[in-house]
Design brief:
This protein is about 15% helix and about 30% strand. By secondary structure, the chain is an alpha/beta fold. Helix 4 crosses helix 5 and helix 6 runs parallel beside helix 10. The termini are far apart.
Length: about 525
């Protein structure tokens, strides 16, 4: 039995000798994907930034190999196979697959014979560069991948995406991958079950509902969508860093329950976490294959023009800015106000083909009676957003048969650009609320509602709070106001009794105080301590 091998360029031959092809089977046998091994010699450091693997991309496709394993005779497999065979779609030419859980949840090597598997040299594996959240290495080529892992122990337990959202620099690294033609999939692992624990929503990653293995349907669907793009369309997407935004748009536009543009511009298409059963990969492949270069959607880029979220708020004086990146902005409501405002602009958004753009600003999550979005200008390039405090609320059930939906403490606003051919992926503005604090606001005739009391004792009530973002304190404050509405002070109740404070925040009697965030608790959940100055002799 003889085998036919495609002719390889010198560049590809060098890569094959560097990393080796796992196997290329003969007719009738299982065909396996190729491999490339990333070594320390392939990496250079960008100043104080990431390591970059320059000139590193997937192997050229062998036209003698099928687009998808021959044993798969499903309608979807036939659809992709036909598109590639007719030259409509580029297939897996030079696409890299980066499995980051050491084959815990991975695509099989025979699934897509022309897909290139990224491997890591032993030195990089020993340093953990191959494992967990993507980001240590920037690969300029087309990359998709996954890591079916999570942080599973201690007070800091969380999914990898919540880790990225709450770690210094995590959002910036996720955005960097997003505009570098890389897209990664991670499970939510206990962060999105009865309660949505994510402090924000973003388009930078795909988060699957469930734990290990829940990412597989997304890996398969994303792989086939990437393979379905025509060569000239993919080249345009790559040149403008639009692979990940466009795949996000295609996935969301073709979810089960999303048939119309109005449904795409609604909450049903943009949850924090996606259920695998909602995927419709055949429609995803069809939309990718039909996309022409001139129809490529833009990436929405936002900037904050004005806001009243501050760098120091609440008793602990913590920053209300969780992150500010071009396609995702996240704020934490720490201050006592009932109402907040921000003005955001999308004027940095450009269409890759120079098409005129119009914008839609959509409330995706939150109480419409408590959120006002006022687009500015004829094309809606900016908007003034006014928000009122939200107590925890329950979303409609994901499953129509479920008795209750997900509890959340977050508002999401999506910003979409329309170029005359298609809508963009959303840019997202998220505001999360510290609802582990029991806050009571009262309505005052002729004035905005004002804060009446706050129970800070989340630990005492057994209420969860994210230890990276929030704290607990063993007291309750009840506020007092003058007839003109000015704050006059509050009464603090602890297990030791009550103490009155003035409007300045200091006790009416006794030494002045300050606050210290104590992160050294036994369970790792921070508490706020009161420090009293020593009385002068």
């Amino acid at each position: 039995m003889s085998c036919a091998f495609a002719e390889l360029s010198r560049r590809d031959i060098r890569r094959v000798f560097q990393a080796a092809l796992v196997s290329i089977g003969c007719a009738g046998s299982a065909l396996s994907a190729g491999e490339l091994t990333l070594t320390p010699g392939d990496l250079t450091r960008l100043g104080s930034g990431p390591m970059i693997a320059r000139e590193f991309e997937g192997l050229a496709a062998d036209p003698a190999l099928p687009a998808i394993e021959r044993a798969d005779e499903s309608d979807l497999a036939r659809q992709l196979r036909g598109l590639v065979a007719r030259g409509v779609s580029q297939g897996f030419d030079r696409i890299l697959y980066d499995n980051r859980d050491r084959d815990h949840s991975t695509l099989g090597p025979s699934r897509f014979p022309n897909l290139t598997f990224l491997r890591y040299a032993p030195d990089l594996v020993a340093a953990g560069i191959d494992y967990g959240l993507a980001g240590p290495v920037l690969i300029p080529g087309l990359v998709f991948g996954n890591s079916s892992t999570a942080m599973t122990s201690g007070a800091d337990a969380r999914s990898l995406v919540r880790h990225a959202m709450t770690a210094p620099g995590g959002a910036a690294r996720a955005y960097r991958d997003y505009i570098s033609n890389s897209i990664y999939i991670y499970p939510e692992h206990r962060d999105h079950d009865a309660v949505d624990l994510y402090p924000a929503n973003w388009p930078y990653t795909i988060v699957s509902q469930g734990s290990s293995g829940s990412d597989y349907p997304f890996m398969d669907a994303v792989a086939m969508t990437l393979a379905a793009f025509p060569a000239d369309t993919r080249a345009t997407l790559m040149a403008h860093g639009l692979i990940a935004p466009t795949v996000q748009m295609i996935m969301r536009r073709n979810l089960q329950g999303v048939k119309t543009r109005a449904e795409y511009l609604s909450a049903i298409a943009h949850p924090t976490v996606f259920a695998g059963e909602r995927l419709r990969p055949g429609r995803m492949v069809g939309q990718a294959a039909a996309m022409r270069p001139e129809e490529v959607p833009p990436q929405v880029r936002l900037r904050v023009v004005a806001e009243d979220f501050g760098q120091s708020a609440g008793l602990a004086g913590l920053d209300e800015h969780l992150f500010t990146t071009p396609s995702a902005i996240a704020r934490i409501w720490r201050g006592p106000a009932w109402q907040r405002q921000m003005t955001v602009s999308a004027d940095s958004t450009l269409d890759p083909n120079g098409n005129a753009l119009t914008f839609d600003w959509v409330l995706l999550r939150g109480d419409p009676a408590k959120v006002r979005i006022e687009p500015q200008g004829q094309d809606g390039r900016s908007a003034r957003i006014t928000l009122n405090w939200h107590d925890p609320f329950v979303l409609p059930p994901r499953d129509p048969q479920a008795e209750q939906g997900l509890e959340t403490s977050r508002v999401d606003i999506g910003v979409f650009a329309w170029n005359g051919y298609s809508d963009s992926a959303p840019a997202l503005i998220s505001i999360s609320f510290p609802t582990h604090q029991n806050r009571v606001y009262e309505t005052v005739q002729g004035a905005a509602p004002r804060l009446v009391s706050v129970d800070y004792d989340a630990r005492g009530r057994g209420a969860y709070y994210d230890p990276r973002l929030h704290w607990s304190a063993p007291w309750r404050d009840r506020f007092s106001y003058a007839p003109d509405g000015a704050l006059t002070g509050w009464t603090r109740t602890t297990v030791d009794g009550q103490e009155d404070y003035g409007a300045s925040g200091q006790p009416v009697q006794g030494p002045e105080i300050s606050y210290r965030l104590n992160r050294g608790t036994e369970d790792g959940a921070p508490v706020l301590d009161i420090l009293r100055e020593a009385a002068e002799n």
